[in-house]
Specification:
Order of helices and strands: HHEEEHEEHHH
Radius of gyration: 22 Å
Number of strands: 5
Largest sheet: 3 strands, antiparallel
Helix content: 25-40%
Strand order of the largest sheet: 1-3-2
Mean pLDDT: 77
Structural class: mainly alpha
Distance between the termini: 70 Å
Shape: globular
């Protein structure tokens, strides 16, 4: 027969990894409690399905109803809840553009040490707009050119191809400067070329 002491010990993490998962799960609950509230005119949770909503999605607690298109949401709320709304209402996604390379969503990556019990880990260095950059690189590893095209980067980042090209050039210059400053990385640098030194600001 299990004693009270045994029952208490069964709740204790048996390994460092399990303990870290419990901490991540609790942290996710705290983060969810600090999210800005959503007006019922945008999104509501109801026990039964209702008519008049743009889209409805069944969840464990009832039904999620989307009452306003995501593109019309106030910018702060749209930025915070965009990935959640797109996951619950795929119809809000833009139509696919021909010729886009395949990417891997963060929520599609299982057994990730960064996520624990969460569907996404938005503080991860490899997370970007719902995409896991590391998993995407692994998925495209067998391609002749595993990198994403500027068209795809612009599409997934929500910017023009020209803007994506400019930011890519700035990132490349930044990496080259950093590599020049580190001993041992000289052989990894591409041959020097006449390049325009873009500032790293947003302008």
């Amino acid at each position: 027969m299990e004693t009270a002491k045994d029952s208490k010990n069964s709740q204790i993490a048996k390994s460092p990894d399990e303990f870290a998962q419990k901490l991540r799960f609790r942290r996710s609950l705290r983060e969810a409690a600090n999210l800005p509230p959503l007006p019922p005119a945008l999104l509501s949770l109801d026990r039964v399905p209702k008519t008049g909503a743009i889209a409805a999605s069944p969840v464990a607690a009832g039904w999620l109803h989307l009452w306003s298109p995501l593109e019309r949401w106030p910018e702060p709320l749209r930025e915070v809840y965009r990935q959640d709304v797109l996951a619950a209402f795929p119809s809000q996604r833009k139509k696919e553009t021909p010729g886009l390379e395949e990417v891997v969503l963060c929520l599609a990556v299982f057994r990730c040490p960064q996520k624990g019990f969460r569907l996404e880990e938005r503080s991860c260095l490899f997370y970007c707009r719902g995409i896991c950059a590391l998993a995407t690189l692994h998925r495209r590893g067998d391609e002749p050119n595993p990198s994403l095209s500027l068209t795809s980067i612009g599409y997934y980042m929500g910017m023009s191809r020209q803007r994506a090209s400019l930011l890519s050039s700035r990132a490349q210059l930044f990496l080259e400067r950093e590599m020049r400053s580190k001993r041992g990385f000289g052989e990894l640098r591409p041959p020097s070329k006449q390049r325009r030194e873009y500032p790293l600001g947003d302008g």
